[in-house]
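Following up on my earlier message about LCLJCK34. Here are the inputs again, as you asked, copied directly from the submission form:
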Amino acid sequence: MTAAPVHAAPAPSAPRVLSIAGTDPTGGAGIQADLKTIGALGGYGMAVVTALVAQNTRGVRGVHVPDVGFLVEQLDAVSDDVAIDAVKLGMLHSTPLIDAVSEWLGPVRPPVVVLDPVMVATSGDRLLDAAAERAVRELCRQVDLITPNLAELAVLVSTDSARVARARTWAEAVTQARHLATTTGTTVLLKGGHLDGEDCPDAIVTASAVGEVPGRRVATTNTHGTGCSLSSAMATLAAEQLRLAPGTEVDWVAALRAAKDWLTGALEHGAALQVGEGNGPLDHFHATRAALRAVADADADIDADPLDWAAQQWTATAALRAEVDALDFLVGLRDGTLDERAFRWYLAQDALYLGRYARVLARASALAPTADEQVFWARSAASALEEEASLHRARLGDDPDAHPEPSATTLAYVNHLAASADSYGELVAALLPCFWLYSDVGIRLAEANREGHPFGDWLGAYGDPTFAAATAEAIAIADRAAAATGAAERGRMRTAFARSMQHERDFFAVPTTAVGGA
Ligand SMILES: Nc1ncnc2c1ncn2[C@@H]1O[C@H](COP(=O)(O)OP(=O)(O)O)[C@@H](O)[C@H]1O
Ligand SMILES: Cc1ncc(COP(=O)(O)OP(=O)(O)O)c(N)n1
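Thanks, got it. Here's what our run produced:
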């Protein structure tokens, strides 16, 4: 008898992330915030409730804790049936609950466990008694990442006999986080949310290293649930890293960069939701909402004249394009104040992007319905590779730091292009923003050039008439593809175009955040 061949199971399409936490009926914190965060970042969310909390944006009114036996029943119900890729632990309330979760974690132990040690209320009141605080300190040793705010950090580094005061400066906070990482052997996410100042840094702290991730403070009172959302974002992003590269180590600093980027957007858009009269929630789905709006705007006038298809999409994405123009990266590149490190970061990612983009252009050539279009895409693929070599490799030289791995944003963009390659129309629509936006942004960059401009040689490369002609040809091809197909594919083309525009915006947004400031 021949043994049946063993096939590795394909990876699931999303990381399966379990939140074990309390509730918030207004949806801003606790389990509700966790599930929104996990979904917004592409995960599959699951939830085990530790406590029912009667709270709103103004504060907590009451807490009901079901019997601990029922908590265990919920935990077992999930782990008996589902492979869990990551767990986020939030409000654990009291010693019996903490012990039950700790006992369950022992044998189940998902690959990623993040603990948000909810111990101190926003008012400063301690939420746990001394025994429960001790139990949380012990639990810290069992997890992969701890995400205390400054008040909780002080409690975690205190002992029964010596209470430590809350850190008042970033340097003090780093010292406390290092102490916690050393005594528990666990990585600490140090959060700067409760310090003053225009900046809002966070850091990944271990016993031997501090990886600071800079951030901008958003002027808002919509901060309810930021800690819950950040910790579940970290659990989701870490599990996603392992889904894409099984068997590797989690890069916590990279996860924090991505989480902060998303969280900053969520803080910025929270107030517009108009939820509650106290400290309102974040808008977890701000990016999805923007994408839906762009598609709905395009829907309004689609099919009016398929021959004018590309111009309609250009108009529909006007708001996104205005956002691109106002990004710190492009403003700094125009006025010359851009941090050289951000510029080099951009060049390195652009080079990585162009190599992969060229392959997708070659795929468009393979799908093209006419010889002229086949030649156009093949030439574009060759130009992208020449551009990668001459503009980028020559500038970045042999510096090994200048040739990093593609960032999450770069990968997301090229994956979107590759995923659009099943039909010619959709692929052409996805490729068009790279031509068109580059040409359009280039007009203003070229205008900003002057004698002695620190990026003068780079700005001088814009405004090339050959590229403008290629852009006009790509627009004409997209119009022909839209006219030649039916309404269903035109709908997919519209989505592909709008998504590429969003990826373009994200691509230009990341360099300044990645190195901090403009
Ligand atoms: N006003 C703000 N602007 C930008 N980021 C913020 C702001 N307030 C908090 N954050 C971020 O939100 C996350 C949660 O931080 P923090 O408020 O310190 O914790 P908690 O919500 O647990 O009290 C951190 O990433 C922090 O940097
Ligand atoms: C059920 C529940 N868990 C945790 C919190 C605390 O939320 P957090 O994200 O730390 O943010 P603040 O609202 O305290 O700023 C909660 N309120 N409810």
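One observation from looking it over: Residues 287-515 form a domain with the Heme Oxygenase; Chain A fold (CATH 1.20.910.10). Hope that helps, and feel free to reply on this thread.
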